[in-house]
Structure formats: structure tokens, C-alpha cells
Design goal:
Blueprint (H helix, E strand, L loop, with lengths): L6 H42 L5
């Protein structure tokens, strides 16, 4: 099916990213992405809770 990524395609993309950015830049990018997702989830969770007075 077109548009679906399997394991070989994901591994190929990761290998190309590793070659382009290098291991240190790739780890910094992953760390930044993880922090961004964590902050986003925290903001969404805080927004769902009703405000207490």
C-alpha cells in the first residue's frame, strides 16, 4: 500500500539522518524533540483541568 512506512523504510531514513547530521547532532535533536513533546503534553494536560479558585 502506498503511503505506509515499514521497518526497512524507517531504518533507511534513520541511517540517512545519521549520515547527514552525525551522532552528536542526532542525539541533540532527539533530546529536543522529546522535551518538546513532554512540554506539549504537560500544557495540554494543564489546559484540560478545571481551574480551582
Amino acid at each position: 500500500m502506498p503511503g505506509k512506512l515499514g521497518l526497512p523504510e524507517i531504518l533507511l531514513i534513520l541511517a540517512i539522518a545519521l549520515l547527514i547530521f552525525g551522532p552528536s547532532k542526532l542525539s541533540d535533536l532527539g533530546k529536543g524533540l522529546g522535551e518538546g513533546i513532554r512540554n506539549f503534553k504537560s500544557a495540554v494536560k494543564d489546559g484540560e483541568q478545571p481551574e480551582k479558585k
